[in-house]
Specification:
homodimer, 12 helices, globular, alpha/beta, Isopropylmalate Dehydrogenase, EC 2.3.1.274 (chains A, B), 355 residues, 11 strands, Phospholipid_synth_PlsX-like (chains A, B), phospholipid metabolism (chains A, B), phospholipid biosynthesis (chains A, B), lipid biosynthesis (chains A, B)
Chain lengths: 355, 355
């Protein structure tokens, strides 16, 4: 099967063209069927391509001069959707010139442009931003929403659960274990919207997921849950607290290891161990936040990602395309609708749901 | 100055009497003016006291047989406020038999009992739970609310800021830098309640704090902020994400260090470094969450704290008593009221507040 092209916003991110093109080239070394639409300044892109002969014949350039600023207000950036590299990359997906878009630019602007250009898929009220994080086990955990929506009601949370589960199934190849983020695991904890969403997810038994109730934020990375579902405010708070603490502990470690000669020697001797730790915590190994619930695949690469990180984001986009995430989400939405119908009709399907 | 007694719920916590009494004795070795009211089973307390001759003459026992269960519903525990060790310790504060209460039992029950027995101080609508966390710098950061209230409006957030600042001033001995937890630092981020609280804190220039706007959760432990103010849901999510990630990274580190002989040798050589890390992250060095905003001091020691952790919680209670936290909060509340009055009267005080 030939994979649709991937549009790359070549101008986004802290280091711009060089890293974006190098990341695409790295991804193509591992997957030679990848084709790219590189959007941005033609001269810069051509110059960056010179170092990557494997990109020849695999990439088309779409020239533009305008770039969305990193700190620009999304509403302002939105007015230049037709002239910026970010806007044109997203638009290529809308027009079918690419199957997915990858950008390392301004998250809010990318979200706004993607929403307007691609619109939400049928049955989804609001898209969500999902990211992958390491766990103590071999498998990663997905968390969403991470800030696409500040608030979320029970209906949004149920949709986020379905979208996150579809993404997780593609990554793990099995039925994922899904939980709602809460401040306790007892039934009466948190908000009404959490209890309502839990009841809905428990009632819809045909969903392609295992719903396990609530999870507290100290258990996200223990390997006991595959998808953590929350509103964008709480998700953003949890994600950044996790990132910040991982950095905090490694910073402490670094200063502890360099505090005495004895420590320095110990550090050198045990370098393989600290390298393993670094590898496990390196955000570049988990790069690529995905906007789920749109008519098309859009992946946000971290602004500070290196080429390996960008390659990771490109591969995430390719996998979601290949495994048709939109169709997987649609299937579970249909099942949810049927479960609600069965319940409304007072059928036997409502037994044991606690409702 | 003679310090009022501290009431200790001797029965709470994972290990009960032995650790609570040992913690009190440890605190008294460092501060020989401390006096205690030990509440719980008399036989067990007497037996525990035998190992601590420095507690003789410094402690009175208040016997009771009933104990609040660790997983008990707060509403259920509340009915036994007059018979349980936790309820009687809090009640001793109400009756003036002690200046502060320390318990390592059920947090929800302790909050409920304290609220009912001590009531909120004048000008405070809701109490908040505040904890101290390590930073990259020498000074600790305080975060509140951590779950006493699931939600908080702008007025609650402003009161939390005042309470947290009073606590921080006692710990740091200087005007603390205060920020509201948000998902971005731009003015338009987050909820209306955050913007309203920020405007109020900016307008009240006479408060004994330096209000610096918003902080994101990856910056809590960088040493750039002394008090992080948030609602109980978000605060609980952030706190547990920080605790869980610190544990996650140290678990990864442990498994990395024991994965090869070379790593093991390195670990032994660099042990002082990892001991330093352990010391810095050990929750026992930062033990003692405080219920702020009540007519009396109540400190929650962590359920799994060891004797050093309990001693820490006891010392926190003593410091809050000694430095009269209630009076400090009252002063800032009065200033806030005056600032509002100045603004309502259209005085010059409203310049530059953005309102």
């Amino acid at each position: 099967m030939s994979l649709p092209r991937i549009a790359i916003d070549a101008m986004g991110g802290d280091e711009g063209v060089r890293v974006m093109v190098e990341g695409a080239a790295l991804a193509r070394r591992r997957h030679d069927q990848f084709q790219f639409l590189l959007v941005g300044d033609e001269t810069q892109i051509k110059s960056a391509l010179e170092s990557h002969p494997n990109m020849r014949g695999a990439s088309e350039i779409l020239h533009c001069e305008d770039v969305v600023g990193g700190d620009e207000q999304p509403s302002k950036a939105l007015r230049r959707a037709k002239t910026t590299s970010m806007g044109l990359a997203v638009n290529a997906v809308k027009q079918g010139k690419a199957g997915a878009a990858v950008s390392a630019g301004n998250t809010g602007a990318l979200m706004a442009m993607s929403k307007i250009a691609l619109r939400t898929m049928p049955g989804i009220d609001r898209p969500a931003l999902a990211a992958v994080m390491p766990t103590l086990e071999d498998e990663d955990v997905i968390m969403l929403d991470l800030g696409a929506n500040t608030e979320a009601d029970a209906r949004n949370l149920v949709q986020f659960a379905i979208m996150g589960a579809a993404y997780s199934r593609i990554l793990l190849g099995r039925k994922p274990r899904v939980r709602l983020l809460n401040i306790g695991t007892e039934e009466n904890k948190g908000f009404d919207r959490l209890r309502d969403a839990a009841a809905d997810l428990q009632a819809a038994k045909g969903l392609d997921m295992q719903f396990d109730g609530y999870v507290e934020s100290d258990k996200i990375n223990r390997g006991e849950v595959d998808v953590v579902v929350t509103d964008g405010f709480s998700g953003n708070i949890a994600l950044k607290a996790i990132e910040g603490t991982a950095r905090f502990v490694t910073d402490l470690l670094r200063s502890a290891f360099t505090s005495s000669l004895r420590s320095k020697i110990g550090f050198l001797v045990s370098r393989p161990a600290t390298e393993l730790l670094k590898h496990h915590l390196d955000p570049n190994n988990h790069n690529g936040a995905v906007f789920l619930g749109l008519n098309g695949v859009v992946v946000k690469s971290h602004g500070s990602a290196n080429a390996a990180g960008v390659a990771n984001a490109v591969e995430v986009a390719a996998r979601l395309l290949e495994d048709d995430i939109t169709n997987r989400i649609a299937k579970d939405l249909a099942e949810l609708g049927e479960a609600r119908l069965r319940e409304t009709n007072g059928g036997a399907a409502s037994e044991g749901t606690g409702k």
